[in-house]
Amino acid sequence: MEKQPIAQTADTKQDRTLEVICKPQLIWHEDGGIGATIIFSQGDSEPNMPKRVNSHGDLKLTGLPANAKYTNNVDITIKLDTSMMTDKNGNPVVGRWATAAEGPVINGAATGFCWFCTVHNVDSRDYDPAPIDVPGMSTHLINNVEVMVDDNTTDAAPDYAYCLGLVLPDYNNYYITLDPMLGSKGVSRVNPTMLRS
Questions:
Q1: For the whole model, what pTM was predicted?
Q2: What is the pLDDT of residues 135-158, one digit of tens each?
C-alpha cells in the first residue's frame, strides 16, 4: 500500500529578524554624573528590510515587505558596541546591559535591561517613563551585550517608547537610561529617516 504524504497543519512561517547596533559615547559631567550620546545603526535583517532604524534608535516597522516565508512578527536584537566608550583620559570603559534586577524602581519593580513606555507625543518625544505591559511584546536578555525585543504585536498597536538600561561595572554599576521610540506596524508617526535633536 502506497504511503500518503502527511498534511502539514503547522504554520511554517518564520518571524522576521532585525539587528540594531547601539554605540554609546560617554559624557563625564563636572558634578560626577555620567551621561551618554548614542549612535544607533541597522545591522542585518531577514528578509531585507532597509531603513528601519535611525541614528536615535527609533524603529519603524510599517510597510513590512510582503514575503510568504515570514510572519509580521519581528525579533529585534539590540547589540551593544562599547568601542567608543572611554573615560576622561581616553581609556576604554566596560559597559553591559543591565540585569532584570537593576535600574530605578518604578511601581515596585526595577526597570532592568529593557521596558516599554506610553508615548504622549512622538514629535516632542514626550513619554511616561513608567514601564507598561504591551500585549504581544516581550524582552529577553540574551547576554551582557545583546537584548532581544520580541514584537508579536498587531498592526493596530500604537507607537511606544522602549528604554534600555546601560550599566558601567567599573563605576559602581552606574546606570544610564537610553530611550528610543518603537513604531507601530500599522499607522505610525515614528520616522527613522528623519533626524531629531
A1: 0.86
A2: 999 999 999 999 999 999 888 888
